[in-house]
Amino acid sequence: MKKIVVACGSGVATSTAVGHKIADLLDANGLSGQYHIVQCAIAEAPSQCADAVLLVATTIAPAGITCEYVSGVPFLTGMGKADAEKKIVEIISA
Questions:
Q1: Is the pLDDT of residue 22 over 90?
Q2: Where is each Phosphotransferase system EIIB component type 2/3 domain found (predicted)?
Q3: How many whole angstroms separate alpha carbon 89 and alpha carbon 39?
């Protein structure tokens, strides 16, 4: 099971929306049951990423993360969404 960390400023509103979109994306690509999503505030991201394969954040990636990073902003704006989706599917499929 691959851990995905979804972070925003507070770990509540925006990360919830982005987390749902990521789950829908991965399930639609046959990856259901191969991941679990954890939401957090961006300040908690470095510790949450210690055992994760991916951080998706609606802010700039903090220093000290040890996993792959994909910006979550495209899931809010739509700009660059296809590229972000492709990278997430590739990381979870690997």
A1: yes
A2: 3-60
A3: 18
Kindly state the average pLDDT of the residues 51-66: 93
Q: What is the pLDDT of residue 27?
A: 98
Which pairing describes strands 35-41 and 54-57: parallel, antiparallel, or unpaired?
A: unpaired
- The 3-state DSSP class for residue 58 equals coil
Cα atoms in the Cβ-side hemisphere of radius 13 Å centred on 42? 15
CA distance 73 to 89: 17
Residues 6+ apart with CB under 8 A from 16: 39
Please, what are the domains in the chain? 2-93 (3.40.50.2300)
